[in-house]
Amino acid sequence: MPELTEVEHVRRIVHKTLLGVKIASVSAKEDTIVFPGVEGGEVESKLTGRSIIDTKRWGKYYVLIMDKGPSIVGHLGMTGWVYIEITHKKPIDGKEKEMACECRMCLRKDPKHVWPPRFWKLQLSFETPDSHITLAYDDARRLGRIRLVDGDPMKELPISKLGFDPLHNLPELSEFTQMVQRRAVPIKALLLDQSFSAGVGNWVADEVLWHAKIHPGHYTNVLTDEECEAIHEKLSYVCHVAADLNADSSKFPDNWLFLHRWGKGKGKSQLPDGSAISFETFGGRTSAFVAAVQKLPKKSASEKVKSVKQKTVAVKKTVSVKKVDKDDDDNEDQKKTNVRRSGRKKVKVEEQIVEEQIVEIYKPARKRKSVATKVKIEDDAPKKRTSRRSGH
């Protein structure tokens, strides 16, 4: 999934290339998933003739602000991307050429590449005195979103629900430390929580923790002030460096984990110095870390932490029982189904962290081979309370 730094790269290219240019025409595929709440033809009618006067970004959302009418608020989803094609109207060196663009994956460079992109959902065409420019949003998996938002998009959903943006308003260290230590979740899970730090995804979180030398499973409520300071510093460092390099991983420093984490399952995941890269799931995502450096203190598994543990809950199923005639053979099946079952089953409470929120999932443990069942037929006899404990 494109993270904060990749989306910032898209914003900067659009800002540099299309700011102040009028949209000559619009083409949009009818797709209620990619365009939630937008009716057919509405995209074309509301955007044609408008000009982009500013671009913004918060977390993983990019914003194109128009001179009038609604703004475009977009999310790239898992595999979505913005492509730009620029063609000169006037010949250069005696022939028509496409303008070069430093935008990684943003300008078609392969002559065999088909334009528009195969899975395009939106195309905006612009005309300048010297060139014809087309912006296309491509999304094969349809997990991205494009919304038309009236008013100030930074104060409306979905952006208004997000946490701080590490590039725009990273909290001061003292406030950041309090925000971290008052939680009781793995630090990797907290960094992925978009209501905490908007735009931080899997690889950014792993990179930050690697440079801070903090284990991804370290619980936040037992992090020291010094450890929080290291996370605060490296969060700013990783996001700013990656953004300034246009999210081009080929230019990342050689000591970054990102460059060496992709050999999982092939026995090749190690740093240049030979340190092994381990993989483990924290916060519902596969985390890459160097166990020799990022060590998990024993105190992080203290009794204070109450997440991801086994609990015992009562599971009861009751079916109403009617008085039946014991001599009636036709009621034999009814006797078998009119039961009251009482027992206890152990279930495991697991915490799964997704990009937008933390969700508790209850998964039943394996069923026992035999379960004691008490069948009772109501009659006029006095009722007697019975109790039973499972597992004894």
Counted beta strands? 13
The DSSP helix count reads 7
The N- to C-terminal Cα distance equals 49 Å
Query: Can you tell me the residue ranges where pLDDT is under 50 for at least 5 consecutive residues?
Result: 99-105, 302-392
| Biggest pleated sheet | 4 strands, antiparallel
Overall mean pLDDT: 79
Helix content: 10-25%
> Strand pairing plus helix content: what structural class?
alpha+beta
The CATH architecture category of the largest domain equals Alpha-Beta Barrel
Strand content: 15-25%
Strand order of the largest sheet: 1-6-7-5
CATH class type of the largest domain: Alpha Beta
Indicate the overall shape. elongated
CATH topology of the largest domain: N-terminal domain of MutM-like DNA repair proteins
Count of the separate structural domains? 3
